[in-house]
C-alpha cells in the first residue's frame, strides 16, 4: 500500500454522498477471454468481489454458448454462487430462452442489451435497432411479471454505442435518447449508458444526461458505463457524478480484454474508480485493499497483469 | 485513426475556450531514461513536438550532469533547437551555475523546482524546504533581471508533492500554499502544482486552488502537473479547468518512466489530454495525429510502447 491516509478524502461540492458500483468484471470482463476460466475460479472471483464490499456483482450471461463460449457454464456457475446477503447478482439475458434459464435458477436481476446505432445492432444482434427492441420487449415484460424470492425481478437495460460508433462516428444525442426511452417504456428499471469504444468526453456525457433530463428520465434510473480506451473514463465519470448520477459500472482490475484491440474494450477499472470516489469522500462500501488483492489474484489466474493503474501502483508497493 | 469526427466536440459550461499545454516530455519525460538517448534524437523530438502544434516545449535541464546523466548534453542540445517561431523552449535551472549556462545559450524561459514537503526537499535537494527556497531566491532574482532577445526572462516555479508525499502521506493545504506564495513573492511568473506521486483526486485539487484564490494568487499564474499513477490525472485536470486553470503540463506519449516504479512517475500523456480538450471543444493548437505519430516514433527510439491509452488506441487502428 501507499503512504497511510491516501487518498486523502476531500469532498467537492455538488457530488452525491454515496455511489453504487455495478461490478461487471465477472461477466463483461471475462466474456472475451479466449482461454476458458474454470467455473470454480469464476465463483471464487464473484465471492471475493462481494467480500470486498461490492453490492452488485454481475455474475454471468445466459447468451447462447455459441456466441460467448467463455460464459457457457452459466447454468453451473450460478447455483455455485448461492445467496450472498446484501449482494445483487444480475445476469445477462438476450432472449426468452435465456430468461427462462436464468429464472429457473432463481436469478432476481436480469439485463438486456440494446444498441444506439444501427451498425452495432447489426454487428452484435444481427437486427436493426428497432428489431432488437422488439425482441427485448416481451423478455422485459415477462421478467417484470415474474417473481423471485417474493420480489419482482429487476431489469437493467444496457445501451451500447451511446457516444461514438466505430463505423458511424459520433452518435447523435436524440438517437440515443429515443432508444433510452424505448427501454424504459418497455419496463426496464434502470439503464446503463455505454461508451463502448471509449471515445466520449465530459461535455458529451453532460449533454446526453441533460437531454435525458429534458425527456423526464429520472437520473436515479441511469447508470454510466465508460471505457478507458482513450483514458477518458474517470473524467467522464466525474462529469456524470456532477450531474447527479449515482450508479457507475466498472470492472475489477480493468478486466475486459485488451484495450488496444479493435473490439475496443478496456473497461474502467473498479480500483481506479474507487480511488477517485474515496478521494472525493464518496462512500462505496468497498475495501480497496481487498479489491486490489482480488484483481491481483485474478490477474494471476489469467496469466497477465491488470491494466488498472491503481492495481499496479498498489500491488507494486506491496511487493 | 478512429472513425472520422471523433472525439465529437461538445463544450461544457464554465470551461476555458483555450488551454496552453506545457509539454514536458523532452525533459521530465526523458530524464529518468537509463539508456542514453542521442542528442540528435532529442532535438528531433523537440522539433516534432513543436511541429505538432505544441507552443511550450520544455527542452532540457541544466542540472549538474551527475544528478541527471540523461540530460548531460543540455549544452550541446539547446543550440541545436534553434529559434522556433511561436514556441517557447523553457529549461530547468537548479542554481546559479545552471542559470549561467542557460542564459549563456540564450534561454528565454527557465524553471526552478521546489518541494512542498520536507521529506522530498531532503530527498531531491538535500535541503529543508526553506533552505531550497533560499537557494532559488537569488537564481530567480538574477533570471528576472536578465534579458534575452530584448525580453525579460520568464521564470516558472515547479512545486513537487502538492497533494501527497510517499513518506508523509497527505500534504496539508496551508503548507503548499505557503511555498506557492514564497515562489511567487521571489518573482516566479508562474507555478506548476505537481502531484508527483499521482494520488490527488478532484476535490483535493479544487480545495488547493480555492485556498490559493483566497490568498490572492491569480489563477492565470497557476499550471497543474498531474501524474497518472492511479489513473486520476484527467479527472483532476477536468476539475482544474472547471476552476479556471488554463495551463496544463503533460508529457507526449506519457513519457516519464515506468508508472509502477517506486519513483512514482507516470506523467499525464499529452495525447490523452488533447483527446479530452478537443472533445470539450477547447482549443490547443495541437494536431493529435502528428503528436501521436511523434510519440510512436519516440517509443520506437526507446524500445518500448507508449503508456498513453490514446496513443495505443490510435496507433493500433492505424496499423
Automatic annotation (TrEMBL), chains A, B:
InterPro entries: Aldolase_TIM, HMGL, PYR_CT. GO terms for molecular function: hydroxymethylglutaryl-CoA lyase activity; metal ion binding. GO terms for biological process: ketone body biosynthetic process; L-leucine catabolic process. The keyword Lyase applies. It comes from the Bacteria. Belongs to the HMG-CoA lyase family. Keywords: Lyase, Metal-binding. It is an enzyme of class 4 (lyase). This is Hydroxymethylglutaryl-CoA lyase. It comes from Streptomyces spectabilis. Residues 19-292 form the Pyruvate carboxyltransferase domain. Its EC number is 4.1.3.4. Pfam families: HMGL-like.
Amino acid at each position: 500500500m501507499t503512504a497511510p491516509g491516501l487518498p486523502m478524502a476531500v469532498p467537492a461540492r455538488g457530488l452525491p454522498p454515496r455511489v453504487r458500483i455495478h461490478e461487471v468484471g465477472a461477466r463483461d470482463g471475462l466474456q472475451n477471454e479466449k482461454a476458458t476460466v474454470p467455473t470454480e475460479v469464476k465463483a471464487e472471483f464473484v465471492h471475493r468481489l462481494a467480500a470486498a464490499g461490492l453490492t452488485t456483482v454481475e455474475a454471468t450471461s445466459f447468451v447462447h454458448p455459441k456466441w460467448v463460449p467463455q460464459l457457457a457454464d452459466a447454468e453451473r456457475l450460478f447455483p455455485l454462487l448461492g445467496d450472498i446477503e446484501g449482494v445483487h447478482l444480475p445476469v445477462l439475458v438476450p432472449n426468452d430462452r435465456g430468461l427462462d434459464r436464468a429464472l429457473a435458477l432463481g436469478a432476481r436481476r436480469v439485463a438486456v442489451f440494446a444498441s444506439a446505432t444501427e451498425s452495432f445492432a447489426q454487428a452484435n444482434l444481427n437486427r436493426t435497432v428497432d428489431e432488437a427492441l422488439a425482441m427485448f420487449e416481451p423478455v422485459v415484460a415477462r421478467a417484470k411479471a415474474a417473481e423471485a424470492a417474493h420480489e419482482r425481478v429487476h431489469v437493467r437495460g444496457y445501451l451500447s454505442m451511446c457516444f461514438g460508433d466505430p463505423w458511424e462516428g459520433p452518435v447523435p444525442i436524440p438517437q440515443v435518447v429515443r432508444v433510452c426511452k424505448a427501454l424504459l417504456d418497455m419496463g426496464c428499471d434502470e439503464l446503463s449508458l455505454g461508451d463502448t469504444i471509449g471515445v466520449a468526453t465530459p461535455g458529451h456525457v453532460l449533454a446526453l444526461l441533460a437531454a435525458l433530463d429534458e425527456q423526464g428520465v429520472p437520473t436515479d434510473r441511469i447508470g454510466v458505463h465508460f471505457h478507458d480506451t482513450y483514458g477518458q473514463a474517470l473524467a467522464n465519470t466525474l462529469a456524470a457524478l456532477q450531474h447527479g448520477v449515482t450508479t457507475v459500472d466498472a470492472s475489477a482490475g480493468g478486466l475486459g480484454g485488451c484495450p488496444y484491440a479493435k473490439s475496443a474494450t478496456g473497461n474502467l477499472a473498479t480500483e481506479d474508480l474507487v480511488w477517485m470516489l474515496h478521494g472525493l469522500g464518496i462512500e462505496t462500501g468497498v475495501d480497496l485493499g481487498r479489491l486490489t488483492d482480488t484483481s491481483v489474484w485474478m490477474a494471476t489466474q489469467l496469466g497477465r497483469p491488470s491494466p488498472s493503474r491503481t492495481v499496479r501502483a498498489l500491488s507494486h508497493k506491496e511487493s
